[in-house]
């Protein structure tokens, strides 16, 4: 999956569920299905309700 496709999917999913999923280590925005950060490998993920 290209980085552009990954980002588009992440933003679209974020708007659907009203949550932001973010790596606690590096701040990368993640998709809801991600269990590990693709940038730094951390499994520490924060979930913020932005609705």
Structural account:
- Helix content is 29%, strand content 24%.
- The protein has a 3-stranded antiparallel sheet.
- β1 and β2 form a beta hairpin.
- The radius of gyration is 10 Å and the shape is flat.
- The mean pLDDT is 84.
Strand content of the residues, in percent? Answer: 15-25%
Helix content bin: 25-40%
Number of helical segments with 4 or more residues: 1
How many E strands?
3
State mean pLDDT (0 to 100 scale): 84
Through-space gap between termini: 28 Å
Rg calculated over all Cα atoms: 10 Å
Low-confidence stretches: none
Judged by helices, strands and strand pairing, the structural class is alpha+beta
Descriptive key words:
51 residues; alpha+beta; three-stranded antiparallel sheet; 24% strand; flat
């Amino acid at each position: 999956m290209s980085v552009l496709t990954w980002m588009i999917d992440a933003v679209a999913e974020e708007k659907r569920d009203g949550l932001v999923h973010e790596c606690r280590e590096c701040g990368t925005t993640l998709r809801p299905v991600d269990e590990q950060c693709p940038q730094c490998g951390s499994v520490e993920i924060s979930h913020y309700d932005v609705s």
